[in-house]
Design goal:
Largest sheet: 5 strands, mixed
Strand content: 35-45%
Radius of gyration: 16 Å
Strand order of the largest sheet: 1-2-3-5-4
Distance between the termini: 44 Å
Helix content: 10-25%
Number of strands: 5
Length: about 120
C-alpha cells in the first residue's frame, strides 16, 4: 500500500451493556464480506484513496459502515463471483429475519456499505 493511503477504523461499543457478555451476540464472520470487499476494490495507489470502517454497538443494535474509494483499474476477469454478497444476504435472512437492514451504494466514486442488525429479539 502507498504510504499516502488513508485507512480509518472506529469502534463505538457500549461496554456497560451486560447483555453483550451474557449471551451470544453476532453470528461469526457475518461482517467479513463487507470489509473484505473494501480491500478488494479499493485503489491503494491513488493519493486520495481510503478505506473507512465504523462499527457501533449500542443497546443491542450493531451498525457497520464500510466505505472505500473505488479503484479506476478494471477488476480481474472471473468466471464466477459475487457469491459472498449473496451468501451474506441469505445469512442475514436466516439468522436475523426482520431485524436487519443492508444498503450498498456508490456516491462520488466511493462505495458505501451499511449494515444494521438488531442482535436480540424483543
Amino acid at each position: 500500500m502507498s504510504p499516502l493511503f488513508d485507512m480509518r477504523v472506529k469502534f463505538d461499543i457500549d461496554e456497560l451493556n451486560e447483555s453483550l457478555l451474557e449471551r451470544p451476540s453476532l453470528v461469526p464472520l457475518m461482517t467479513v464480506d463487507l470489509i473484505e470487499n473494501a480491500f478488494k476494490h479499493a485503489d491503494f495507489h491513488h493519493p486520495d484513496s481510503f478505506i473507512s470502517i465504523v462499527l457501533s454497538f449500542r443497546n443491542g443494535l450493531l451498525e457497520l459502515t464500510v466505505s472505500n474509494k473505488i479503484s479506476k483499474r478494471s477488476p480481474l476477469y472471473k468466471t464466477k463471483g459475487g457469491i459472498g454478497s449473496k451468501t451474506l444476504e441469505e445469512r442475514l435472512m436466516l439468522y436475523y429475519p426482520d431485524r436487519h437492514e443492508l444498503k450498498r451504494f456508490v456516491e462520488n466514486d466511493v462505495y458505501n456499505a451499511y449494515l444494521q442488525i438488531r442482535l436480540y429479539e424483543n
